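Fatty acid hydroxylase domain-containing protein (Crocodylus porosus), 266 aa
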Amino acid sequence: MRFYWLRQIPRLPKPAQGPRQNPNSPHQSHRGDSMAVLDKPNHRGSAEVTNLDLGGDKPETWEDQWKCFKMTFYHTLTIQTPMCLAVYIYIEYVDLPCDWNSMPRWYSAVLQIFGCFVIEDTWEYFTHRLLHHKTLYPYLHKVHHNFQAPFSIQATYVSHAETVIIGTGFFFGMLAFCHHLFLLWLWVVARVAQNTHVHSGYDVPWDPLRLVPFAATARYHDFHHLNGQGNYASIFTWWDELFGTDKEYENYNARGRQKEMKEDDN
């Protein structure tokens, strides 16, 4: 890694040393995620991969994905590109380090990215919950709930206002912890991958998030789309647990376990 960094970074023009992806929105989704390979209309699921589809909604069609893509492209041009330019200006203004000697050790990088997640999760929980208020929901957040069964690119299917409001949380983490270009890049990749994953609609046995305490999974967020409320956090579950906004999800799981026990008895 050191060889690659020292060899490649000097070759890049200064603007190219900034983030090459749109980091600003928690709803930004790229098809490079492992789930995206499986995310084809009407062809979801396998022997090892469970398509959640908790709501019993019809599988997404190519028309659905095209509709989401058009909105994503529109947001990219009108909102995310200006925000990326703002990130570039920030990098120039603070003269963000990009040399190898000042790069943080791996354990420090992990802790700082974790800090970014904690900050954004806190921001997203309270703003997301606020957007579900009856006076705001029809105008700001309803569009994101047009699909009961989420799929990866649907993570970007949001209103302009929501893109800005919830997406602001990304910058709080960036300002607090990303004091090196590598950390900024890492934060972009980590957030995009996490958000794509949680909207993927797949419950897989090799999901690494199962090993992370309090991590929100695709199943956890799918219930939010099914139920229309509760499970407001999409990164960690502790705010939902603290404020009791996961009670309906727990009851849903309890009913599922009881149903399985009855089927086993029969």
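The chain has one domain: 62-265. DSSP finds nine helices and two strands in the chain. ok done for today
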